[in-house]
Prior knowledge:
- One of its GO terms (molecular function) is symporter activity.
- This is Transporter.
- It is found in: Membrane.
- Its main location: membrane.
- This protein has about 725 residues and is mainly α.
- The protein has helices at about 5-15, 25-35, 95-105, 110-115, 115-120, 130-155, 155-165, 170-200, 225-230, 230-240, 255-270, 275-285, 290-300, 305-315, 325-340, 345-350, 360-410, 445-450, 455-465, 475-505, 515-530, 535-545, 550-580, 585-615, 635-650, 650-660, 675-685, 695-700; strands at about 35-40, 40, 210-215, 220, 425-430, 430-435, 620-625, 630-635.
- A two-stranded antiparallel sheet has the order 1-2. A two-stranded antiparallel ribbon has the order 3-4.
- Helix 23 (about 550-580) packs parallel to helix 25.
- Mean pLDDT is about 80; it is low at about 1-80 and about 710-720.
Amino acid sequence: MANTAQLIRRQSSRDLYAQRSLERMEMKELRGRLVNMENGHPSHRAHVMYGATNQAFEDTSPRQASETPSKESSVEEKAFKPENGETERESWDSKLTFLLATVGYAVGLGNVWRFPYLAQKNGGGAFLIPYFVMLAIEGIPIFYLELAIGQRLRKGAIGVWHQVSPYLGGIGISSAVVSFNVALYYNSIIAWCLFYFAQSFQAELPWSECPKKYFKNGSYITEPECAASSPTQYFWYRTTLQISEDINYPETFNYKIALALIIAWILVYMCMIKGIASSGKVVYVTATFPYIVLVIFFFRGITLKGMSDGLIHLFTPKWERILDPVVWLEAGTQIFFSLGLAFGGLIAFSSYNPVDNNCYRDAIMVSMTNCLTSMFAGIVVFSIIGFKATMVYEKCLSSRNETLLELFGSGYRSMVFPEPGDNVTVRLNGSLTRLVMPHLPECDLQKELDNTASGTGLAFIIFTEAINQFPGAQFWSVLFFLMLFTLGIDSQFGTLEGVVTSIVDMKLFPNLRKEYLTGGICLLCCLLSMGFAHGAGSYIFLLFDMYSGNFPLLIIALFECIGISYVYGVKRFADDIESMTGQRPGIYWLICWKYLSPLAMISILISSFAELAVEGSGYDAWISSEGDTVRKPWPVWAILLVLVLVLASVLWIPGLAICRYFGIQVIEDEERAWFPAEDLRDFHGIEPHTVSTLETILFCTRPDGTDGCCWPGCCETDDDE
């Protein structure tokens, strides 16, 4: 039986519908009177936490942040109190904290060191067309889907998909396994950034020039490996990685990187020790600092010589590249992974939001912020690469001209030079002299601009080489690697949060406090990550980077769309979103969830497998004697490891469904998190949705407005709970 507060609130809601023009302060005052009444008596609770909109949300956070609720932020706490006595769920202390955490999770290292490379490689400005097309049909729709389903069902990835259907619980487990695998190797990047950051405080950057090799008699020469390559390559491959020449022979254990890994995992744990209560505070720094540094580098970059050459090279459109299917494949892949889809982190983050949070606005805002950050980072990176290329080009010209001046005198400017090795007769000091034409260095600015890389090659080799040319290089190096560190660590928060929340929701360790669980996971990852701290560690890192996430995440996201569209039902999902936000998703989003996004992911999967079958796969091994990399095939054990990584992630989806079919319960059934559907509809003034003819044709909606349940075990409507 509804209590007095519920009856008062419902009557007041009807009054509010007729008075839409009331001032916000009047509405707050009215709702304040309702919130403070419980069974006719004043309530002693004076404050309402952001996200704590009903008593069904379990709150394990020690924090007691207070905010005055409004229609835009939170529905009344007491008016939507369930009768089953459940406790509050852990929640964000403010909307800004959630947005910063989500932006920090989505905006990562790929925005800085992957997008600029792909843009200049795949048609410059023309690449933006497939990039934004894939954003519209794949990126934003799945981002929106994950935020909405997490907010609606109020669980981590495992709990959410198990509630959609017990046969789909494997989707959540797969997300957790992939997140664990990615978190395992991702912290290696953070460790490398910490190592470079520490080295940046030296009086002279250690990668600015080649070291000397000394002999017993006191003489010395330039280190041959460095002389054959470059100072930045030598420092990266030899000093930092202590790399071996083959993945089968690790040679040495890298104690420096092992120590950096330990420090990195300690930092991650300290930031996550209290769950979102602690990581939510850290993101105020980690999510904003990269933008501050990018702006600083932007203003530095636009003042550099050659900046315009770099930007012209980046954005000059090559329209013929649009017809290349590989360009569309790489655009879709970049959108998918830069937004952090299918990891479970977005679902976990949104599950801590209030029930009436506008997840649609959040999805658009964060997705566009992510893409605009990629473009801005591209401008910053290529303004500096343009400067580096110009410096190398001018140095080459200077060396070339000095050689010609020494051989031919000042008259060389009007000469037509023969081929290298040919004899040439010139007049020097009044007499004819016969010379052999030497080999001259080839000076080509366009070739230098094309000499870019993605990933670690861009960050630790090319960009550090450009920083060497800056006055006060140490300052710029500290800023750059601190930026990479903050970009990496807040993405790591979201990835690990997907693992932790899933384990908590599965109740694998029901009596273990969350900080102990987080510490145990970080300790396990730290021990396993020592596999990346030896001579062949960078090759194993590359293997994990290429295969532990790519294929499994695409498959997981495909089943997410199938689960919502064909099991939960797009009409029902649209009803839920309308209840939460007061605004029904347009038919475009429903078409994306049911047709366009799955087709895009199937196309990317098929194209990726075809590319792998045609071109094969391997790794670039560093050969110290040549000062260069050589392509080598993966050994058999590495291919088996790839199969284990992929299958251990995706086999949970069919495996758990088969177990459920035969009555084997892997995930424990539990009550759904309380969701005040009717109260939210009253609050937003939502009328029953009339199904259009177009919706009936496109989505097979029944005449009574219901979705056909085409999957055994599909959860029943719980709107009236």
